[in-house]
Structures are given as structure tokens and as C-alpha cells.
Amino acid sequence: MTRLGVWFLGVGTGVLLAASGASADELRDQAKDLFPPVPAKVAHVRGQPVTSGQIDLGRMLFFDPRLSASHVISCNTCHNVGTGGADNVPTSIGHAWQQGPRNSPTVLNSVFNVAQFWDGRAADLREQAKGPVQAGVEMANTPDRVVATLKSMPAYEAAFEKAFPDAPDAVTFDNMALAIEAFETTLVTPNSRYDQFVQGDDHALNQEERRGLQVFIDSGCSGCHYSSNFGGQDYFPFGVVEKPGAEILPEKDKGRFSVTQTATDEYVFRAAPLRNVELTAPYFHSGQVWDLKQAVGVMATAQLGTEMPEGDIDAIVAFLKTLTGERPEIDYPVLPVSTEATPKPDFGSLPTK
Amino acid sequence: MTRLGVWFLGVGTGVLLAASGASADELRDQAKDLFPPVPAKVAHVRGQPVTSGQIDLGRMLFFDPRLSASHVISCNTCHNVGTGGADNVPTSIGHAWQQGPRNSPTVLNSVFNVAQFWDGRAADLREQAKGPVQAGVEMANTPDRVVATLKSMPAYEAAFEKAFPDAPDAVTFDNMALAIEAFETTLVTPNSRYDQFVQGDDHALNQEERRGLQVFIDSGCSGCHYSSNFGGQDYFPFGVVEKPGAEILPEKDKGRFSVTQTATDEYVFRAAPLRNVELTAPYFHSGQVWDLKQAVGVMATAQLGTEMPEGDIDAIVAFLKTLTGERPEIDYPVLPVSTEATPKPDFGSLPTK
After folding, report:
1. Do residues A74 and A62 make contact, with C-beta atoms less than 8 angstroms apart?
2. Given this model, what pLDDT does residue A21 score?
3. Coiled-coil regions in this chain (chains A, B) (predicted)?
4. Is domain B44-185 given the CATH code 1.10.760.10 in the classification?
5. Which residues partner with A237 through β-bridges?
6. Closest C-alpha to A224, from A261, A269, A179
7. How many Cβ atoms sit within 10 Å of the Cβ of residue A156?
8. Residues B258, B286: contact at Cβ < 8 Å?
């Protein structure tokens, strides 16, 4: 009930603002409060400094396919930093070509989300990183095998010791996750045109884009999609006013209900963060909508209960495209060489020939 | 017959040198002729300059999974520049989790090979690049679909026009291959300890490693594994003296015979280039030997007809590990965003649940 309360408050705020017809400065002031700019750097996580040793190790781990049982799939396979931090397929392909249940969320700016996964079942990126490594339809590995893999390579041992100098046993599954999280804190995309606008550059957004931002606020989108990430902060029913079709909202996936076992959490999902949204089609947890305009239309109907005028949808889409930020420069890592002690790849079931 | 002749000549040369007991300078002179150092840069291919526009485009293409039908597999999946330019599995996993027939050769220094693939069926990297994109067990795409994919993205069109400014139609399958080749010319690994040694640094190799180099020459390894790439220059029967077991040399894969349909090419393969060999286990076209020491022993028996003393094998292995060069620094590319016109991913057969 609290969450629904927040949601309606959000819509209410939007409606109040709708009447205002704000100037560029007024719009900027509204927007800055609702959606602060993305910082260029995240220096701390949970109050702890993120060190360069952890980031370097995390970068290696993020790109290392040997975290998977098959030695074929890395974190980057589904959260490809070259294509918006996601894999841009409906739902991801994993171990033995199994198709996962939900669309891969972008890793870009994910550090700003209140929790991870579409249902928020991981409190933070540290916890998130442990999921896909073990999921049978994703990397299909086990913590013991991952640790054995990492301990088999002296260069990894050294990198863990550098990243976690005070740990009596540096190479652990927990530290693997911490290092991946540390790397992921660097995957932020500052200085989008939207950010330039709220930081004072009137010319960063054209008139249509500013109108889109205003409509985004006034029509109630910002009731769920707020914060510097334009979402990712709380959970809301998908189809609160009108349920979308089963293709978009498959009946079997009850969202956050599977985490909380609370009836009011049926078909509840974390509001998708919208930074770089133009890079991350297809949309929604089911990944069945490829067109951003269609996605905005679905949201208007399902969440706001309105048939939004096409001109407003176009303006919102134009505005959303200003949320594409500067993507981080990433050196592709040189990975430690496997040794005799490294567990061999296990492909699982191969297709019959 | 010519090829066999060359091979026996190679062995003969090795035997002649065996008696010499060369000093560091003599060893260097021998080695420099047989295995020149890897250059730090390749500026031309087939007499044409390689441009930065082509390299930048090629880097995007090399890492772009949308060259595959599924949008999951990129060139880098099987030729991972972070793990020795190969995938370090017996034989590669491709489209719909099909397992390919041969071990993925390293892309590092591949520009120095006389031809590409284990059977040399592609004359150069340009031709090679077209193979896996179309192979049903690899990327399972078609030239038309690849071109449609690339043409659907304005940023790719611009990158092709920059790379091929004189082409009336820049975005072609041929130019895709040329750009990938251009990028691959940058994947060279100069300045290995071996290279430092032949360039004058006596201390770059220790005594055991120098002895290994001498044994490598004297025992006849260099009869096939010559040139700056320590191989990759010509074709030789695998098991010329004694056929290895069917696990290592599967009966069904007749090697270069499938290219030339010439009886003497049965079980003939391109001599594997040995640069960075410590990074590219498992070994041989079948990828069934994980241990470099075992691989050297197999070669001695199969190709030289000798049970090489363990001390000599150890020395050769020590020497081979000095062939690991400096790997190129690679910025992971930011890839163009798909558009409505981009062909959608096609996963092919999914496993039954």
C-alpha cells in the first residue's frame, strides 16, 4: 500500500505541475529537483571508498568468460558496455542457449538504483553480481568452482590481493562480487544533453525536447521515473490502470510477488531507469516492444490511464533521447592465463546434430 | 610433394645445426634468420596502407554481436583478445550452442600467416572474416542481412564512408571484411622476451630458455614452425612419422584435403603459429590437449618420430613461453545504436524446456 501511495502521490504531483506552463528556468528548477544530473564519478559505495585496485580487478572479472561454466559467457555478454550496457535482445541467451525469463537491464548507471533486477531482489550490485554467475539459464557456475577458477591463476590471486589488501583470504566469491560492483560504479554516463540543460545550458535542449520534459513531468511519468536515474527507485504495478496484453505482461511472471510473496506485489516491478533508454531496446521486462514511441504509449495507457496525444508522445520520445550520456572509456582487459588447475569448460547439453 | 620436401629439408637443416653447440651470438644469428622479431606495427596489407578509419571501423565490427544472426556472438567471442586471441575451449561454441569442428586459432599476429584457418582455405584475413559470419555453426548470418544490419545504423554508414571514402557504396560485405582485417593488423604482440633476445639482449632469455630455443631448432621443430610467427607459413601432414590417436587427430577431419581434394593433403594442416602459445590452450585443431608439455611431446613423436628426452621437452616449453609478447591496448568500442530498420535477433533453435 505504501508503494501505491507513493505512486499516486507522484501522479498527483505531476498533475499539479501540469498547469504551470513553466519557462526554461522554471522547468530547469523543477527538473533538477526531480532528476538531478548524473555525477561524473562515484567514489564510494555503502560508505566505503572504491579503489582503483578493485576497479581494475572488477573490469577483468566483468569481461572474463571463465566465470561461466562454459567459458563462453561473461557479464558483458548480457550487459554489453558497447551497446548501452545491455544485450538488446528480448530476453537473454545463456548457458546451453537457454533463454532467460526477463530482459537484461542496463549496467550503465545501475549503481544509482535502489536495488537490482526487475524485481529488486538484490539489494545492491554486490549482491546482484552473484546471481547470473550461478543461475542455470545464465552462467551456470557455482561459487566453489568460480573460486577454484580464480585461485588457479596467479595473476588473479595478485589482483585480488591488491584489491583487498586486508583480507586474510582475498580470493572469495564475495570479493569477486565486490570487485565487479566496483567496476560497475565506473559505468556512469554523465553530461547528457539533459544534464547540460539542468546545469544551465538553455541551448542543450531544443523546444520539442523541453516540451517533452515538461509533459514527462506534468502527465505523471515522473511519479515513478524520478531520481537522477529517471527510475530505479521504487516498485510499481505494471498496468496499474489498464493491464497491457499478455505479450508485454506475461501472466506467469508475477514480478516482485516472487520476492515478497505479498499479494499486492503481483505484477509489480521496479520502475525502469530511463537513462540511455534509446540504446536499450527492446523494452519492458518481457522485451517485446522494440519501438520507444510504442513503449511510451503503452506506459501512458497502462500506468496513467490515458490515450496520450501523439504529439505529446513524440515530445517525450524526443526528450528521452536527450538522456543519452557520455559512455565511459574502457580498456579491454588482458586476462590471466588459465593453468592446469583451472576447471575445464563445461558446455552442458549440446544440441543433437 | 613439394611441401613434404620442404618439411624434410627443415628437419635436415635442424640436424645439421644440432652439432654446432652455438654461443649466444651464434644462436641469435640462427634464430633471427629463422624467426625474425614481430614488428610493432603493420602499416600495409597487400600493398595498401591500413588507415585509422578502417581500423576504428574494424574494431567496432570485431566486437559487434549484431554481425551474428542471434546478436549474441561477435568475432571476439571465439577470438577473445583478452585471452590470447582465442576462446580457450576445445572447439568453439556458436549459433544455437552448436559446437564447431576445430579449435579457434588465435587472432593475435594472424596477419603474418600465409593463409587463414587450420586448412588455409582463406587466402588472407579479409577472406577469413567472411567465413564465421556465414557459417551455420558460428554466427549463422548472411551477407545480405549483415549489410542490411549495418546500413540500418547511420553511425555505421558514416564509419564506412570514413573508412572507404572512394567507394560509391561504402557499406558492403567486402568492406566489412576489409575493415575487420585492418583492425586485426593491429593485433600484433611485439617485444616478447624472445624478440628482446634476438634484438640483442642476452639476458632476455635464461640458460634453459636458450637451450630450449637451440633444441627447437636442432631437433627439427623449426622445419615447420619457422618465420616470425613460428609457424603459419605452410602445410604439413599431422602424424608424418606416427599418427597420433584419434582423440587428437579425429579420422573424419581430413584437414587440407577438403580444400584441395588432393590425396597427399589428407590430414595436412597449416603448421600452427606458436607466438603466445602459452595463452592458447587447448592445442591442435581438435583442441584436446591442454598441457603444452604434452603437446610438445605429441609433436616430437608424431612429426619427428622421436621420443624426446623430458629435459629437452621442458626446455622447449620454457622457450615457448618466451614467445608471449606485449598485447595491444584496445578501447572497447561504443557501438552504433540499432534502429527500427535493424533486422531483429534470430536465435534459431532454442533447447526444449
Report:
1. yes
2. 54
3. none
4. yes
5. A268
6. A269
7. 23
8. no
Q: Is the pLDDT of residue A309 over 90?
A: yes
Closest approach of chain A CAs to the CA of B292, in angstroms?
10
Question: Is the alpha carbon torsion for A9, A15, A18, A19 positive or negative?
Answer: negative
SS3 B284: coil
- Partner-chain contact B97 A290, CB within 8 Å: no
User: Does B282 sit behind a cis peptide bond, omega within 30 degrees of 0 on the bond before it?
Assistant: yes
Locus of grid cell 597427399: B264
Amino acid at A231: G
Per-residue confidence (pLDDT) for residue B23, from 0 to 100: 87
Say what the ipTM of the complex is: 0.93
pLDDT at B3 over 60: no
Integer Cα distance of A293 and A314 in angstroms: 7
Nearest-CB residue to B97 (from A63, A97, A329): A97
User: For chain A, where are the alpha helices, taking DSSP H only?
Assistant: 2-18, 24-34, 52-63, 75-78, 125-134, 143-151, 154-163, 173-184, 193-198, 207-218, 257-260, 292-299, 310-320
Domain boundaries, chain A: 26-38+190-322, 44-185
Hey, of B108, B335, B346, which one would you mutate to test binding to chain A, going by the most A CBs within 10 A of its CB? B335
The model's pTM? 0.94
User: Quick one: pLDDT band at residue B21, thresholds 50, 70, 90?
Assistant: low
* Rounded distance between C-alpha atoms, residue A332 and residue B82, angstroms: 7
Measure Cα distances from B310 to B214, B293, B315 in Å.
15, 9, 9
Three-state SS at A193: helix
Residue A348, exposed/middle/buried by CB under 10 A (0-12, 13-18, 19+)? middle
Q: Assess whether the region A26-38+190-322 and the region A44-185 belong to the same CATH fold.
A: yes
Residues contacting A182, CB < 8 A, separation 6+:
A45, A50, A51, A54, A55, A57, A58, A163
Kindly determine whether residue A331 and residue B335, on different chains, have CB atoms separated by under 8 Å.
no
pLDDT the model gives residue A16? 41
pLDDT digits (tens, 9 = 90+) for A192-218: 999 999 999 999 999 999 999 999 999
Torsion B44-B45-B48-B49 (CA) sign: negative
Asked whether the predicted pLDDT for residue A245 surpasses 50, the reply is: yes
| Residue A196 C-beta-side C-alpha neighbours within 13 Å | 15
Q: Thinking of the domain A26-38+190-322, which architecture would CATH place it in?
A: Orthogonal Bundle (1.10)
Interface of A with B in 44-103 (CB under 8 A): 63-66, 70-72, 77, 80-84, 87-90, 93, 96-99
Q: What is the DSSP letter of A105?
A: P
Q: Which residues contact B295 (CB under 8 A, 6 or more apart)?
A: B283, B284, B289
Cell, residue A295 = 513503449
